[in-house]
Amino acid sequence: MEFESEDSAYKCYSMYAVLKGFSIRKDFVNKSRINGTVVSRRYTCHRQGYRPNKNGTYLRKFQKETRTGCLAHMTIARQPNGKFQVTHFETEHNHEFVKPCTAHMLPSQKKLSFAQAIEANLTVSEIEDGSNMVPTSTSETNCKARLDYDPVNHEYKLPFKCSSKMKGEIEKIKLHFQIKQRKNPSFFYAFQLDADDQITNTFWADIKMIIDYTDFGDVVCFDSSYKYYKDSWPFVPFLGINNHQQMTIFGVALLQNESVESLKWLFIVFLEAMSGRKPKTILTDLDVVTAEAINVILPQTNHRVCVWHVYQDALKHLSHVSAGSDSFINDLRSCLFHHEEEDYFVNEWNALLDKYNLWENEWLQQIFGSRHRWAIAYGRQYFCADIESVLLRQNLTGNLKRYLKHDSDILPLFKYLVKVVTDWHYKELEANYDMNQRMPPLLGDIITLKHARVPYTPKIFELFQKEYEACLNLVIKHCTENGSFYNYKVSVYEQAREYSVTFDSSDETISCSCMKFEYVGILCCHALKVLDYVNIRIVPSRYILKRWTKDARV
Length: 554
What we know:
Blueprint: E1 2-3, H1 6-20, E2 24-31, E3 38-45, E4 73-78, E5 84-90, H2 114-119, H3 124-129, E6 155-157, H4 167-183, E7 188-193, E8 199-205, H5 207-216, E9 219-222, E10 226-229, E11 232-241, E12 247-255, H6 260-273, E13 281-284, H7 288-297, E14 302-305, H8 307-317, H9 319-322, H10 326-337, H11 342-355, H12 362-369, H13 371-374, H14 387-393, H15 396-401, H16 411-437, H17 447-452, H18 458-471, E15 474-482, E16 485-492, E17 498-504, E18 509-512, H19 516-519, H20 525-533
Parallel strand pairs: 6-7, 9-13, 13-14
Antiparallel strand pairs: 1-5, 2-3, 3-4, 4-5, 7-8, 8-12, 9-11, 10-11, 11-12, 15-16, 16-17, 17-18
C-alpha cells in the first residue's frame, strides 16, 4: 500500500486503529542528512513498550500503567517516486481492544470519530492485506444490550379514592410513557388505580435500568425521601451500584399514596419488570409501612435501614446544632460511617452526645434504640456492597431536589432523570475504557496484588490494595488449632484491639470477626494477614466476587 504523504499514512493507520479498537502514536523517524526530509517512519500501538522508570523500583503511587509491551506497528519508507510505502505491518496485539462505542476516547482518536472512519470507506481487512481502498457498506455499531421483554400495563386498584389535584400531571405522565413505549417496546411502566379508576401511583424502568438490575441487583436502596408535591407524591428511585462503585438507577416510582397496599403493588411491579429476580438486600428508611410491605412481598430479602437515610434525618432533626458547625457534621459522619465494631460505635455515639450536650434529645434516643437495624456495626452478615459509603459521596439528593419544586411541571423532572441516567452510563463507559487501557499502580512487586489487579476493576482493586497495605502493620498474637481449623488473633502492632480470624486448611476457607467480606465483598486486612502467614499468595477465587470484577456484565 502506498501513500501520497506521511500525513496520509498516519490518517490511514489511525482510521484502521479506530475500527480495530486501539490507539496509535508516532515512534522513531529517520530523516535525510542532506535535506532533512523524512526517509522512514514507524507508527506503533500506544501500548507499545513500557514506561521508563525514573523514580526507583516502582511507579509513582498515583501513576497508572498504560503500556503492555505491545509489538503492533506500521513502518513506512519513502520511495524514489516520492510516495511512502508500507514496508512492515504487524497486526498482533497483546491486549484487548476497546469497544467501538468507546473508541472516541482513545488518545489518537480525539479528532477522528468512529463515524469518520466508516465514512472513509475503510475496512480492517483492506488495510491489513494492503489492498486498494474500495467502497464498502458497514452496519451501524453500538453498545446497546438487547433484552427480549414484552412490557405489560398492569393495573391494581386501591379500595379508596385519592386526591385529584394531580390529575393533569397524571395525563402528562401517561402520554409520555405511551410515546416512550412506542419508540422502545422494552420500556416498562405500570399504573395503580384508585376506587374511581383514576391513576394514583406509577412505576417505570427503561431497558438500561433493567439490564443494570440484571447485573447489579443484589443490593437495592429504596429511597422515598424526595417529594414532588409537599406532603405528597414521593419520588422513589430504586438505586444500586455497579462494579466501579458508581450509582445506578434500576427504576423509578411516583406515589400519590404511601399505604401498605400501594407499596406492596410497587414491589410487585418492580419484580415483574425485573423478571421476578429478587435482591439479596434492600435498604430503606425507618418507615414501618415500608417494612410491612417488604415483609409480605420480599420475605427472603434481607431488610436493613440505610445509615445514609439516618444521616440525612439527623441533619434535619439536628439542624439547630449542625447549622454553621462543620465540626458537628464531621463528628456525626465519623460516628455513623467509620466504626464497624459495636463498642467503638457506642463509645463514639456517647462522646458525640457529651460534646454537643444532646443527651436529652428525644429523636436521638429513639434512633439509638433502633441502632441494630441501621448501624454498620450490626447486621454485617448481610451483603450491602458498601452502598452507604457511595451514597454519602454522591450528590444525588441536592441535584434532584432542584427539580422537585412543589409547583413545577413534572415533565422537566422526567427529562432531568433521563439526563442523570445517561450521565451515569457515560461515566461507566469512561470507567470501562480506563479499566481496559490503564493498569492501577502497585505498592510493590507483590504476587497477591499482581494477581488481584487482573480480575478487579480499578476502583475495587484500590480498596483491596488499601486492605493489603493495612495488613502490613498487623501482627498475629496467638493461634489455636483444632484439626484443620486454625484460629488466629490479629491486631494492629502495639494495639490491644484483637480480631479473630478462622482458617480451614482443608479447603482454604477463611473468615474474620469484622465480617468485611460478608458486608462489602472484599477480604479484610486481617484475613489477608493470615493468608500471607500460611503462605497463600493468591486470593482464593471464592473471595473474588464477580460483581466487583471487570467481567461483571459478562
